[in-house]
Amino acid sequence: MTATVRAITTAKPNSVGSFNVTKPTGTAQGDLLLAFHSMDQGTLAQMGTPTGGATWLSLGTRNSGTGYDMKTKLWWKIAGASEPANYGFTENSTGTGCVAIVAIMGADTTVTPVVAQAGSDAGFEVTVATPSSTPTGSDDLELRWAAGNPDFEAVTWTAPATYTKQADLQGNNTTACLATKQLTSSAATGVQNFTASVGVGNRHGFTVDVASLPDQPPRPPVIVSQAVNRSSRW
């Protein structure tokens, strides 16, 4: 079974210390959930572990400094039997952020998603690079997250060629884009660039590969032996 996006929800919190993000529509027990969270101000410690349902686990962290800079955290978990309608997140009470939660069906939940990250804090550029990653299999689902500080300018994003843009977000002075691709090879996927409509600073790029459930071998036919009753007439 191939790992596939079931649904995505997003949030763009501004100047709040805590907020909720809706559970992706149709999330089912056993789905793999990924959460991407970028914030422009404060400290990494203020971006606490999300709350609600099964425990969220850290998948990746990037910090462009303290104070008015960029921070990103990635989280993952396997959906339990009693997931809530919303998940709780925290960040600096004067900061702005972007969050996307992705529910993935058909994922091999025995395998921790592969994650790679890159970034640049120099100047403002329209190109945000997401790094190459080596998937676990030829049918992985790949997710790419690009984020940065747009200096309070409105931003729209163009995803890398062959990737499907899933979210285009801006929370005041934080902007981010999420794109996905169904892979057909286990080869390294290469650096892929997102393009912002205006220059952004403190650029963060993350690449995540989610393994698909292995195909189940066909079951052999079940042969039921039946007794044959014969009668003879003399």
Overview of this protein structure:
The C terminus is likely disordered. The strands form three sheets. Strands 8, 9, 10, 11, 12, 13 and 14 form a seven-stranded antiparallel sheet that branches. The protein has a five-stranded antiparallel sheet with strand order 1-7-3-5-4, with no helix packed on it. A two-stranded antiparallel sheet has the order 2-6. 44% of the residues are buried. A hairpin with a 2-residue loop joins strand 12 and strand 13. It has no helices and 14 strands. It has 234 residues and is mostly beta strands. It has one domain. The termini are far apart. It is globular.
TL;DR of this structure?
This protein is an all-beta fold and 234 residues long. It contains no helices and 14 strands. The termini are far apart.
- Poorly predicted runs are 230-234
Number of helices: 0
What's the domain count? 1
- Secondary-structure element order, N to C: EEEEEEEEEEEEEE
| Average pLDDT over all residues | 92
Shape assignment:
globular
Gap between N and C termini:
61 Å
Largest sheet: 7 strands, antiparallel
Helix content percent band: under 10%
Q: What structural class do helix, strand and pairing data support?
A: mainly beta
Instruction: Round the Cα radius of gyration to an integer and report it.
Output: 22 Å
Number of strands: 14
Share of β-strand residues: over 45%
Q: What kind of oligomer do you see? A: single chain
